[in-house]
Amino acid sequence: MADYLSKLWHAVPWASLGPFIGAIATVIAATLGALVVIWQNAKQAKRATGQLRHTEALKLKMRVYEEIVGLCREARDAQVSYSSYARGFVTDLTLYREMTRAGLSWGLPKARVPSLFEKQAHFNKAVIALISLAERWGVIHPGLEMYRSAFSVALHDAGIAFDPYRSLVIRLMPAEIPNSPLQGSLFPWTLPDDATIQTLEVATEALIKAIDSFGGFMYDFQIDMQNLLVGELFEHRIAPRQPLDPKIVVARLDDWEKLKGYFENSTAWGKMANDIDAQVRKANEVRG
Question: Considering the entire predicted model, what is its pTM?
Answer without folding.
Answer: 0.80
